[in-house]
Write a structure and sequence with these properties.
The complex is a heterodimer of chains A (about 110) and B (about 110).
Chain A: E1 5-7, E2 10-13, E3 19-24, E4 31-37, E5 44-50, E6 53-57, E7 65-68, E8 75-79, E9 88-95, E10 103-104, E11 108-112
Parallel strand pairs in A: 2-11
Antiparallel strand pairs in A: 1-3, 3-8, 4-5, 4-9, 5-6, 7-8, 9-10, 9-11
Chain B: E1 3-5, E2 10-14, E3 19-21, E4 24-26, E5 33-39, E6 46-52, E7 60-61, E8 64-69, E9 74-79, E10 88-95, E11 101-103, E12 107-112
Parallel strand pairs in B: 2-12
Antiparallel strand pairs in B: 1-4, 3-9, 5-6, 5-10, 7-8, 8-9, 10-11, 10-12
Chain lengths: ~110, ~110
């Protein structure tokens, strides 16, 4: 287990379609974070999990967004009825303890056409 | 609310020169962590350097060092002997008590041959 994996790397979808992204964190990391990054901007917090519990959701996370982390392992982020404004890089990160920062995945780049 | 401000959207320096990236932050917390992350073009976000707020000594990692001024809430990154591979977006980041990271908008650094 060498890092955080995200799948797919790229996703192009038509407006109105649903999409789901997956993140596999480092196995011993109990906290998992989702961020969204638009072009030329810093990542913005969306939500995070401690084990299987979703502890916080940003106001950026509209009702069309849902995230899960069953059994405290991998996590999925689903966007329903995608809009063009959802086009962004979706980053996943995991952490064992705060002192060492996050380990990021490579991200999923979503393009809504 | 905690905020992170990077006032230099873009910088360019010649290879082998030294460059300093600025960052200020705002928080009412006394103990926290600060980070600089590097995001090369189309590549993964990686941790460059970290600083614990309760430590007065500035962190150093090879060619990378920080100037941490806690009272001024300033956390600048110095890159010595810059290399072409240092070309990237650099994000200053603050970690909150629940391990959530708040990022600045980034500084795009170009190292010129």
């Amino acid at each position: 287990d060498t890092g955080v994996s995200q799948d797919p790397r790229h996703k192009i979808t038509k407006r109105g379609q649903n999409v789901t992204f997956r993140c596999d964190p480092i196995s011993e990391h109990n906290r998992l974070y989702w961020y969204r990054q638009t072009l030329g901007q810093g990542p913005e917090f969306l939500t995070y999990f401690q084990n299987e519990a979703q502890l916080e959701k940003s106001r950026l996370l509209s009702d069309r967004f849902s995230a899960e982390r069953p059994k405290g392992s991998f996590s999925t982020l689903e966007i329903q009825r995608t809009e063009q404004g959802d086009s962004a890089m979706y980053l996943c990160a995991s952490i064992a303890g705060g002192a060492y920062g996050y380990t990021f995945g490579s991200g999923t780049r979503l393009t809504v056409v | 609310a905690q905020t992170v401000t990077q006032s230099q959207p873009e910088m360019s320096v010649q290879e082998a020169e030294t460059v300093t990236l600025s960052c200020t932050y705002d928080t009412s917390e006394n103990n926290y962590y600060l980070f600089w992350y590097k995001q090369p073009p189309s590549r993964q976000m990686i941790l460059v350097i970290r600083q614990e707020a309760y430590k007065q000594q500035n962190a150093t990692e090879n060619r990378f060092s920080v100037n941490f001024q806690k009272a001024a809430k300033s956390f600048s990154l110095k890159i010595s002997d810059s290399q072409l591979g240092d070309t990237a977006m650099y994000f200053c980041a603050f970690m909150t008590r629940d391990d959530k990271i708040i990022f600045g908008k980034g500084t795009r650094l170009h190292i010129l041959p």
